């Protein structure tokens, strides 16, 4: 590995660990500080930390790889994500921030569900916590897998060592600094990702001689590369657009909305977050498209490399960003660009680890084992939980069975179906009951699992239609039907919320 690359990566790791130490001294005095940053995030940190924790290594590896192979037929994913993120800012963010604060200052989603519906049975807390732990462990495993793949393909490091290095740094600053450290590192990582996704496609386009040669070359590769409708089916387009439905139920994203300092900050956060997302997605898509043209014309001249076959073809489409960053830039800059991939991976892993540890601590340890646990004891339990979840995720990633996009897609659909309809209806529908909420979670989760793992005619149903679609539909129907059939209790936070509704609507505009 070049010295410049090593220097860039070393500086990146030092910066992340330094932020973790800063977070330790600044905001880990009690559980609310450690798990939610004391609800003091500004709009910029809220927006970029939500974006960075959302996109993960998928933004710099999975999405460019998909466009490298299939071209603009994959654009429907990006369109669905943009629409979903925008609606999430408008429909969910302000109300969730207000509702979770009114509902006894709920720190976690299971906490909110229990307080929102005055669920003395604790069933809502238990089931939602189980869903979070299962799907986030799988989601975290996908992120660790991406880190191992990066070190294997870019540095020739053994895959297992790459896993351990990625997980080790993330665990260190997450465990030490808590939510504030995670949000601040996500902000920095979001900036790095943004710059990298502008630099790489522009440099590759310049080397290719402009847009005309690129268009001509990709047209020869496949007629599908520039045609978003080529080979498209109705179910296929719906499946790709449906990724946007997942935003309403992603705990690691919406927890940022719960932590923002003021309702007044949401408008600015939305503008920053959506601008960042649209530009970054365009950069990722162009990296794949231009990368396909570059490899078709220059791949045979690159010589033997870890990421190329003997004929100069890309061995793994998901490494196209890595390839371009290393062959188009000076090693010092190339190291910065590789740090962008690490930033994408680590930002998501850290958020998932913290949300999972929050659930283990607040919704299991305190709720069922140590109800009188002090804040200091809960913070310690949270740190131990971070370590335990990371160990399980690394164990799963030692034998990966799917590509990165599929792993992320399954976990994304699981959360979207289990929590998305529940969160939206809990914020807008007064007639909703705790039994309806419980039914929605269970039905949504089971529908996704059935769609992914039960084969019909030799293939899972997810090969025909993305599991998010039936999961969200069935969860919504379950919530409405069961709520109608069960007695409506007095909402635990209904009257207080109604008094604030005018202000919430004003700040959402």
Automatic annotation (TrEMBL):
Where, if anywhere, are coiled coils annotated?
A: none
Compartments reported by the entry: Cell inner membrane; Cell membrane
In terms of PROSITE patterns, this protein maps to: NA_SOLUT_SYMP_1 (PS00456), NA_SOLUT_SYMP_2 (PS00457), NA_SOLUT_SYMP_3 (PS50283)
Kindly provide the name given to this protein in its UniProt entry: Sodium/proline symporter
Question: In which organism is this protein found?
Answer: Aliidiomarina halalkaliphila
Which keywords fit this entry according to its UniProt record?
Amino-acid transport, Cell inner membrane, Cell membrane, Ion transport, Membrane, Sodium, Sodium transport, Symport, Transmembrane, Transmembrane helix, Transport
Q: Which InterPro entries match?
A: Na/Glc_symporter_sf (IPR038377), Na/Pro_symporter (IPR011851), Na/solute_symporter (IPR001734), Na/solute_symporter_CS (IPR018212), Sodium:Solute_Symporter (IPR050277)
The encoding gene = putP
GO CC terms for this protein?
plasma membrane
């Amino acid at each position: 590995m070049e010295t410049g690359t090593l220097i860039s990566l070393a500086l990146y790791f030092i910066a992340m660990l330094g932020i973790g130490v800063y977070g330790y001294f600044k905001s880990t005095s009690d559980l609310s500080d450690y798990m939610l940053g004391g609800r003091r995030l500004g709009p910029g940190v809220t927006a970029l930390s939500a974006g960075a924790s959302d996109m993960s290594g998928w933004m710099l590896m999975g999405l460019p790889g998909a466009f490298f192979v299939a071209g603009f037929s994959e654009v429907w994913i990006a369109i669905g994500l943009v629409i979903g993120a925008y609606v999430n800012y408008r429909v969910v963010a302000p109300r969730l921030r207000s509702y979770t604060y009114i509902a006894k200052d709920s720190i976690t989603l299971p906490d909110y569900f229990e307080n929102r519906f005055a669920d003395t049975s604790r069933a809502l807390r238990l089931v939602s916590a189980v869903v979070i732990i299962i799907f986030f462990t799988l989601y975290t495993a996908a992120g660790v897998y991406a880190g191992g793949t990066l070190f294997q393909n870019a540095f020739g490091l053994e895959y297992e060592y790459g896993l351990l290095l990625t997980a080790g740094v993330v665990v260190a600053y997450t465990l030490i600094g808590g939510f504030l450290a995670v949000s601040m590192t996500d902000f920095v990582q979001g900036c790095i990702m943004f710059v990298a996704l502008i630099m790489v496609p522009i440099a590759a386009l310049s080397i290719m001689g402009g847009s005309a040669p690129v268009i001509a070359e990709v047209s020869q590769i496949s007629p599908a590369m520039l045609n978003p409708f080529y080979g498209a089916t109705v179910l296929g387009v719906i499946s790709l657009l449906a990724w946007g439905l997942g935003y309403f139920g992603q705990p690691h994203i919406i927890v940022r909305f719960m932590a923002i300092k003021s309702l007044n900050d949401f408008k600015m956060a939305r503008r920053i977050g959506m601008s960042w997302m649209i530009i970054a997605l365009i950069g990722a898509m162009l990296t794949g498209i231009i990368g396909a043209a570059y490899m078709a014309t220059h791949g045979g001249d690159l010589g033997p490399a870890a990421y190329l076959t003997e004929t100069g073809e890309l061995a793994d489409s998901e490494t196209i960003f890595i390839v371009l960053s290393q062959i188009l830039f000076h090693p010092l800059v190339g190291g910065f660009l590789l740090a962008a991939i690490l930033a994408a991976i680590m930002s998501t892993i850290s958020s998932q680890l913290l949300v999972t540890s929050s659930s283990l601590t607040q919704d299991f340890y305190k709720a069922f084992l140590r109800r009188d646990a002090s804040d200091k004891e809960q913070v310690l339990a949270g740190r131990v939980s971070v370590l335990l979840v990371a160990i399980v995720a690394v164990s799963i990633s030692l034998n990966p069975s799917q590509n990165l996009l599929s792993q992320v897609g399954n976990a994304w659909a699981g959360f979207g179906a289990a929590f998305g309809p529940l969160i939206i209806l809990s914020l807008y529908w007064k007639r909703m009951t705790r039994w309806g909420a419980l039914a929605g979670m269970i039905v949504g989760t089971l529908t996704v699992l059935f769609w992914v793992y039960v084969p019909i005619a030799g293939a899972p149903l997810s090969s025909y239609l993305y599991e998010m679609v039936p999961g969200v539909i069935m969860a919504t129907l379950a919530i409405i039907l069961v709520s109608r059939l069960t007695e409506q209790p007095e909402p635990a936070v209904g009257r207080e919320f109604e008094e604030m509704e005018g202000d919430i609507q004003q700040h959402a505009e």
